[in-house]
Automatic annotation (TrEMBL):
CDD domains: NT_GlnE_GlnD_like. Its EC number is 2.7.7.89, 2.7.7.42. The keyword tRNA processing does not apply. Belongs to the GlnE family. Residues 352-498, 868-1010 form the PII-uridylyltransferase/Glutamine-synthetase adenylyltransferase domain. It catalyses: [glutamine synthetase]-O(4)-(5'-adenylyl)-L-tyrosine + phosphate = [glutamine synthetase]-L-tyrosine + ADP; [glutamine synthetase]-L-tyrosine + ATP = [glutamine synthetase]-O(4)-(5'-adenylyl)-L-tyrosine + diphosphate. NCBIfam families: PRK14109.1 (NF010707). It comes from the Bacteria. Involved in the regulation of glutamine synthetase GlnA, a key enzyme in the process to assimilate ammonia. When cellular nitrogen levels are high, the C-terminal adenylyl transferase (AT) inactivates GlnA by covalent transfer of an adenylyl group from ATP to specific tyrosine residue of GlnA, thus reducing its activity. Conversely, when nitrogen levels are low, the N-terminal adenylyl removase (AR) activates GlnA by removing the adenylyl group by phosphorolysis, increasing its activity. This is Bifunctional glutamine synthetase adenylyltransferase/adenylyl-removing enzyme. Gene3D superfamilies: Beta Polymerase, domain 2, Nucleotidyltransferases domain 2. It comes from Pseudonocardia nematodicida. GO terms for molecular function: [glutamate-ammonia-ligase] adenylyltransferase activity; [glutamine synthetase]-adenylyl-L-tyrosine phosphorylase activity. The gene is glnE. The lineage of its organism: Bacteria, Bacillati, Actinomycetota, Actinomycetes, Pseudonocardiales. Residues 1-502 are annotated as: Adenylyl removase.
Length: 1018
């Protein structure tokens, strides 16, 4: 019974191991009845340790050392020692091992008079480490004239420095963890801990330099300064972190090599004893010289430095070596830092670098990354640094290298709302606390939260971070909730940090529900500077749009003020933020009376995000959206399903369109309905295309199906209104329409065929059918806000000079007597799309012998096709066009691939029925199946066709009008690349390189297969 009571009591203390009771009894803290008299507080301090079992095992090892009796006596009376010791031993195996190896260091954790004084300062720590290696703390800093030199060198010096550094780390960590072991003990703020860790790093660098000086014995005139960068420079260091530095030396010349040897040796000593030293932020990175003179640094940064290098210099601070040289370095380079924001695409480059960091995180780690993941520490640091660089050019109060100090200054100066600044600082401190605890455990560099299924590790982390259960959730649940909350808050505040002050600058009203003291208010000049830095080419125009959207006291203006921080953040990543904001204003004004428009954007985050992508990329979408706002509802994502409404079945769409149009009373109303439906569908398809939800052949098929349905429903409407028909009419699709490959800007290439009704002669039938067809063309081409669908019949026999409509007999007579090879080639795409189906099938049967000749093509006919193609390439390419990037007539473009497939069809479809298709891609696949073209060559041609078709569609989406020539540079090229799925903010030259590579390979196949060229051909 007694043993059961003991087990229950131990379990309450968190000790579940089978040997815990035995260990406690051996320590004299526990007997059969529970805690020994005088040891109750020891037990409760042990229970509060993050890992009670780990702490108890460490104590058991400590009890075997000489000082244990003295430690035991102190634990019974010293509350501070109990809290610090058990919290440290339960939080860090590495520090526990250090204490057991050096048990006399237990006094670093005891309550002494020193505890009443401020924490140890930089001078005390530096003196301690210098004395540990035998250097005189009173001498000038090592690296300067007459500077301190260590008495110890080599392995002995490294060992002494390592021990002294770990002693300092133990004392600091125990103070940091004290409140974990005892809630009554003082709590150290995470920024104070980070600052002291940076001080300790400075002391470590100074001691390591003193050892290196003793070993290298440099010339007396050589001066070396160590410039702290990154978290060391910002006095916000982690427990385990690389210490980033840059070296500067004088006087240079022959002594530069000696300075490099000294710096290199200092880095190795520090790496073996304390921490890794990283000098990769120096000019030219790893490839650059380790040490440069001050003039060498200045010259590099003035002539060659990239934007991110100036961002890194924000945190530059002398930390070791010659102090005067270090100050001169900072004084010389600081002005250059604050000019960096004037560079073109400054913020875009910094944001692109941030996105690359996120993209390089392995997917399985992305949700657990405290530092690099979305909503993590780096997001806060990047946001603060961007705002510093943008506004610090004119406000020197923003020049602090410390993230939290700079954030406070931004809030104080009105560049960030005070509440936003305070909330962001709180989240940053929480994330840094988790990072510190994770690194303390084994003194290893890590930023990864334990995996979701590792309950023990998560429980340990929660307890080490002073997280307590809240009554509804245990500590693991609370930890997860707090991590998610703070991560989301960091992500959302990023939008407000950059954009909410802009709204206050343009609106006379404070944001609804926000007190003036918490809302930032930029000056007009500061607002323009921020917008320019964030990617707006016309800041004044953007401010005008913001004034128009947020001005007044209407409900719409209030919603816009709440929405715009999010929308502007999304737009800043778009290829053309200026056009996107203008388009958003126009759409908002056009839909001002639509009651659900702003509510949808406010309540459906995915809709707002997707809309900004569309408006910032495409000129076609906003033109269509004002008259088809209902498509906005399709942008929502529900239950994880990727917007099925955006990717509807084309057959279903065509049936619905024809049914809707058939209900209209007049041809004019029917055409208006058909064109309106087509506008809606073009917008839906464009949205799905830009959002990456449709492949290029799906886009073409969807557009083609709509065009077919519009033509068919219009013809039906005119026929219904025309009284007794005198002929049956069939519409034959030609070109891209017949091939099922329509693009956004394609005309409707067609032929018209008729068959006289009973008792009607051919002349009257053709005359009547021509009047019907003319009316169809006139209705579809009439002026309208909706996109026109021009009906082009120029591919008919005799071209524009020939009759618009012919009978079957007339077509038969013409093709038998007069048809040329190019006309047979054009008929390869002929497909009935509207009107009388039986007549359409008869026409197809009539032309099959023409387009699929039984004997194939003669050599002269092949030569004629090649000659025509060469002439088209030479004469129709516009003057000044780039043949490598012209999607239609360029090398490896649409014409190259389509003519190659059509030549194979003319040569072989008479014998191979499988080749009898109007589709380019289907014909290409069948040719490969039949062995007419090598499988690898077929893949190259298919990729070329897909790439050119996608690019041609993207040009229409971006410009809002058809075009075949890819932009050479600028925002249009970036928008085309983004429309094709390349990363926003990336280098559009990558897309151009890819396009040229794909089409170059396709062209090589065309030269072999179509032209019959070989490597020996001249």
């Amino acid at each position: 019974m007694m043993e059961r009571r003991t087990g229950t009591s131990l379990a309450r203390l968190g000790l579940t191991g089978s040997t815990a009771g035995e260990t406690l009894r051996s320590l004299g803290w526990w007997d059969a009845d529970g805690p020994v008299a005088g040891c109750e507080q020891i037990m409760w301090a042990l229970a509060r340790s993050p890992d009670q079992e780990l702490a108890l095992r460490a104590v058991e090892r400590l009890s075997r050392t000489g000082p244990w009796p003295e430690i035991d006596r102190a634990l019974r009376t010293d509350r501070g020692l109990r809290g610090r010791l058990f919290a440290t031993l339960g939080s860090s195996t590495a520090l526990g091992d250090h204490l057991i190896t050096h048990p006399d260091r237990w006094r670093l954790l005891a309550d002494t008079a020193d505890r009443e004084n401020p924490p140890p300062d930089l001078a005390r720590r530096t003196a301690h480490l210098l004395r540990a290696v035998g250097a005189d703390p009173a001498a000038p800093p090592p690296g300067s004239a007459g500077g301190a030199r260590a008495r110890l060198t080599g392995a002995e010096a490294v060992g002494a420095l390592r021990t002294a550094y770990r002693d300092e780390l133990l004392g600091l960590a125990s103070a940091d963890l004290a409140a974990v072991g005892d809630p009554e003990l003082p709590v150290m703020e995470v920024d104070d801990v980070a600052a002291q860790l940076a001080d300790l790093a400075e002391a470590g660098l100074t001691a390591a330099l003193a050892i290196a000086v003793a070993e290298q014995e440099p010339a007396d005139e050589l001066r070396l300064a160590v410039i702290g960068m990154g978290k060391c420079g910002g006095r916000e260091l982690n427990y385990v972190s690389d210490v980033d530095v840059i070296f500067v030396a004088e006087p240079g010349g022959e002594l530069t090599q000696d300075a490099s040897k000294l710096a290199s040796r200092m880095m190795r000593i520090a790496g073996e004893a304390c921490f890794e030293v990283d000098a990769n932020l120096r000019p030219e990175g790893r490839q650059g010289a380790l040490v440069r003179t001050l003039d060498g640094h200045v010259t590099y940064y003035r002539r060659w430095a990239k934007t991110w290098e100036f961002q890194a210099l924000l945190k530059a601070r002398p930390v070791a070596g010659d102090p005067e040289l270090g100050k001169a370095y900072v004084a010389a380079l600081s002005p250059l830092v604050w000019q960096a924001s004037a560079r073109d695409d400054f913020v875009a480059e910094v944001q692109a670098m941030r996105r690359r960091v996120v993209d390089n995180i392995p997917s399985e780690k992305r949700e657990r990354e405290l530092k690099l993941g979305r909503g993590g520490l780096r997001d806060v640091e990047f946001a603060v640094q961007l705002l510093q660089l943008v506004h610090g050019r004119t406000d020197d109060t923003l020049h602090s290298p410390n993230t939290l100090e700079a954030l406070g200054e931004l809030a104080e100066g009105g560049y960030v709302g005070r509440d936003d600044g305070a909330n962001l600082a709180a989240s940053y401190r929480f994330l840094r606390l988790l990072e510190h605890r994770l690194q303390l455990q084994k003194l290893r560099r890590t930023h990864l939260l334990p995996a979701a299924g590792d309950t023990d590790a998560l429980r340990w982390l929660a307890r080490a971070a002073r997280i307590r259960p809240d009554g509804r959730r245990d500590v693991v649940g609370v930890l997860d909730a707090e991590w998610q909350r703070n991560s989301r808050r960091v992500s959302r505040l990023h939008e407000k940090l950059f954009y909410r002050p802009l709204l206050a600058a343009v609106s006379r009203l404070a944001t609804e529900g926000v007190d003036d003291t918490t809302d930032a208010a930029l000056s007009p000049d500061a607002a323009r500077a921020r917008l320019k830095a964030l990617g707006w080419a016309s800041p004044e125009g953007a401010l005008g749009h913001l004034r128009a959207l947020t001005g007044g006291v209407s409900r719409a203006a209030s919603i816009q003020r709440a929405l715009l921080p999010v929308l502007l953040d999304e737009l800043s990543h778009a290829p053309d933020p200026d056009r996107g904001l203008l388009a958003y204003r126009r759409v908002s004004e056009a839909l001002a009376s639509t009651p659900w428009y702003l509510r949808l954007l406010r309540d459906e985050g995915a809709v707002a995000q997707r809309l900004m992508i569309l408006l910032g990329t495409s000129a076609l979408v906003p033109d269509l959206l004002a008259r088809a706002p209902e498509v906005l509802r399709m942008l929502a994502i529900s239950s994880g399903v990727q917007s099925p409404e955006l990717t509807r079945d084309p057959v279903e769409v065509a049936v619905a369109l024809r049914a809707t149009v058939a209900r209209q009373p007049t041809p004019e109303a029917a055409v208006a309905s058909a064109r309106s439906y087509r506008r809606h569908e073009m917008l839906r398809i464009a949205c799905a295309d830009l959002l990456g939800l449709l492949e290029v052949d799906q886009v073409c098929a969807a557009l083609n199906s709509v065009n077919d349905a519009v033509l068919a429903s219009t013809l039906d409407a005119v026929l219904r209104a025309g009284g007794e028909p005198k002929a049956a009419i069939a519409v034959i699709g030609m070109g891209r329409l017949g091939g099922g490959e329509s693009s956004y800007g394609s005309d409707a290439d067609v032929l018209f065929v008729c068959r006289p009704a009973d008792g009607v002669d051919d002349h009257d039938a053709v005359k009547w059918a021509t009047a019907v067809v003319e009316r169809v063309r006139r209705l579809l081409g009439s002026p309208s806000p909706d996109p026109a669908l021009p009906v082009d019949a120029d591919l008919r026999p005799e071209g524009r000079s020939g009759p618009l409509v012919r009978t079957l007999a007339s077509y038969k007579g013409y093709y038998q007597r007069w048809a040329e090879t190019w006309e047979a080639q054009a008929l390869l795409r002929a497909r009935p799309i509207a009107g009388d189906r039986a007549l359409g099938r008869e026409f197809t049967a009539l032309i099959d012998p023409v387009r699929y000749p039984a004997d194939g093509l003669s050599d002269s006919a092949v030569a004629e096709i090649r000659r025509i193609k060469a002439r088209v390439d030479a004469e129709r390419l516009p003057r000044g066009a780039d043949r490598t990037t012209h999607t239609k007539l360029g090398h490896g473009g649409l014409a190259d691939v389509e003519w190659t497939v059509q030549l194979l069809q003319l040569q072989h479809a008479g014998d191979l029925p499988e080749l009898r298709t109007t589709s380019t891609l289907e014909g290409l696949r069948e040719a490969a199946e039949a062995g007419l073209v090598d499988a690898d060559d077929a893949r190259e041609l298919e990729e070329g066709w897909r790439t050119a078709t996608s690019a041609r569609n993207a040009i229409m989406l971006v410009r809002g009008k058809p075009g075949d020539q890819l932009p050479r540079s600028g925002r249009e090229l970036a928008a085309v690349a983004a429309a094709l799925g390349y990363p926003a903010g990336g280098d559009p030259g990558v897309f151009l390189d890819d396009y040229r590579r794909v089409t170059r390979r396709a062209r090589a196949v065309v030269e072999r297969v179509f032209y019959g060229w070989t490597e020996d051909s001249s």
